[in-house]
Amino acid sequence: MKPICLEDGKVILIDQTLLPSELRYIECRDVECLARAIEELKVRGAPALGLAGAFGLALAAMGSKRMSKKGVLMDLEAAYDRLKRTRPTAVNLQWAMDRVLAAARTSDDPAKAALDEALRIYREDIEMNKALEKVGAELIKDGDVILTHCNAGSLATSGYGTAQGIIKEAFRQGRRISVFAGETRPLLQGARLTAFEMVRAGVPVTVITDSMAGFVMRNRGVTKVLVGADRIALNGDVANKIGTYGLAVLAKEHKIPFYVAAPTSTIDPAASSGSDIPIEYRKRGEIEFFNEKRVVPREADVLNPAFDITPASYIAGIVTEKGVLLPPLDRSIKGCIG
Amino acid sequence: MKPICLEDGKVILIDQTLLPSELRYIECRDVECLARAIEELKVRGAPALGLAGAFGLALAAMGSKRMSKKGVLMDLEAAYDRLKRTRPTAVNLQWAMDRVLAAARTSDDPAKAALDEALRIYREDIEMNKALEKVGAELIKDGDVILTHCNAGSLATSGYGTAQGIIKEAFRQGRRISVFAGETRPLLQGARLTAFEMVRAGVPVTVITDSMAGFVMRNRGVTKVLVGADRIALNGDVANKIGTYGLAVLAKEHKIPFYVAAPTSTIDPAASSGSDIPIEYRKRGEIEFFNEKRVVPREADVLNPAFDITPASYIAGIVTEKGVLLPPLDRSIKGCIG
Q1: What domains, with CATH codes, occur in chain A?
Q2: B275 touches chain A (CB under 8 A)
Q3: Angle, CA B267 vertex, CA B264 and CA B273 arms, to 5°
Q4: Is B230 a catalytic residue?
Q5: Hey, which of A327, A332, B50, B74 has its CA 20 to 30 A from B205?
């Protein structure tokens, strides 16, 4: 499954808001179309957002009417600014765009350099995630009951996943495992996307509401919690989908190891701790309406942070393409990127 | 607001599934209508279920065509069996029906005795909840930020609430407080009912998804967690809406006191601990569809326990109409009902 790719001068992506009922692809020929698709979460997941950013700059480069290098770079920078505004928490978006822009700036043919770099990031993402799946699969034992949250599967990447990619790889390797997928309110990426991926892969999956996590940890023999990440600070604090922190606290209480899976590009060298990571607040309508039916009184306030921070102290390990980073995470992260 | 009452030989109740969009009353003239309303959660909340059970037996008594005492009792027993099957966890339902049936059995006019006892339970529920509100309001301090879950407000009782009744009473007494209401998946009683009650009472309320509880405890200065209960075991273990246990664990981690509010009729003398409390599993459709839209793949499993057990060790106090039961809860419960 390719959730996002660049073909014939278009970015083609699965509209993930329609899953699991409908598998529909949409095409973006310009940056604005892509920026809106990101804002509306038609494409989501930290690594996939990196690809979207890279492909977005490639679209801008290919579509630029300017003749001079300076002119093309101006178009690239405008695209960069527009795309950066879409989602503030996932660092991969900015990381990938920074790479594309830097490649364009140091080339005599910035448009070609932008395109080449975007495609290089895409190929690297595939290799990185394949490597990460293999590393992570070694952690999974026969009989594991894995609780996961949101979606960091193939839909969140170039086509190989992080957290759910590991689960599928371990299953392919023959481990008998089962999965609890938290539905992941408000937008239900766990129910809609992770369950969809697990079903397609044949992995036994049970969907629960997020509020059932404590119940299944206590009563249903959960042996591991495994989630993705949208940004990782140098001290090992992890930003991920809202609800992740609560799972980490529950895992600690039940003495269940809590693992994070993310490529090293998710580590933000500019964030020394979780408090340096900006948290995206989304519109109240995502909670206020339930498939267009009002479920919150108009007069009530609504809070809708899309992410939370899980402090490093709750994390048993971070699975990356280079190996599993173990506590103390500040030191192992330093060793990994330093 | 009267969520349920008995008038002119009919049980009149608010259809709580339509709130907050619509405030509509429905009427039940027979036991089967009422049993279905309970199963479909048109009426819900432990104390209100007790009233529904009592009123249901009153309907059966008034509607009985039998002439003999034995015949009327047979009709009452059939109604008892039908209503008991509706919801297994809330002990109040059985407790109230046991009272009505006992009154009928010991009277020469069982129909009149059943009706009188049902109305007595109703009046007692009002008095009990008023008393409980006063007791609990003393726990609430100026400036408190209270996280609550599900609905144990006036909609869950005869018209005065337990957990949310306390909040409203403290607010009426002039305490400046604010409330976070967890939406309470899958049926959103927090978003729909608690927020509705808070808005009507003028209490500042912010709705969050259940997965945001850790976030608001960590970042938004929550000072107390306060929830209702569906059944309390003799050792102080509490059955309440699914998600309650997770909140208790999070509260402990953040050193926030976790309070339960429930009338003493919620204590089940037959349950020595939480493991004696039956947990109701509901249909997968409540999670599988989101306002009739499929959000879980057909092939995925779904788990839908309606309640969880919070061990006594997590509970700072149980607010009852007779006072606040403090740890050790097994001893204070014994003192209270003994």
Answers
A1: 4-129 (1.20.120.420), 133-337 (3.40.50.10470)
A2: no
A3: 150
A4: yes
A5: B50
